[in-house]
Amino acid sequence: MAYSKGRSGTAWAAMRARVFAEESHCWICGQWVDQALPRTHPMSRTVDHIVQLSHGGAPLDRANCRLAHRRCNGRRAEPREPRRRPRRWVSVEATSL
User: Fold this and answer.
1) pLDDT digits (tens, 9 = 90+) for 59-91
2) Contact at 8 Å (CB) between 12 and 6?
3) What is the pTM for the complete model shown?
4) Does a structural domain hold residue 64?
5) Can you tell me the distance from the alpha carbon of 47 to that of 31, in angstroms, rounded to the nearest whole number?
6) Residue in 93, 34, 36 with CA at minimum distance from that of residue 68
7) Is 91 within the bounds of a domain?
8) Does a structural domain hold residue 93?
9) Residues with Cβ < 8 Å from 43, sequence gap 6 or more?
């Protein structure tokens, strides 16, 4: 597993457990979060940083960590470059029929 600034180790595990114990609703959409869902489910629980770590947010500051749905947290992430689809090359023989 690759190192993720502020999101590994026992301090991060303790922060996650604290957020999961203290909060029950997604801070982004306001809906209840089912904390029993498997972690790959789009509506499962995650901890979101209010001020993103890439913008200087404190990774282990409780005031910067909130409960969010995985889907809400992902939609709030920084925009990425669109994925390019690979070109489909057509052989010359197929086009000259």
Assistant:
1) 999 999 999 999 999 888 767 677 777 767 766
2) yes
3) 0.72
4) yes
5) 15
6) 34
7) no
8) no
9) 33, 34, 37, 69, 70, 71
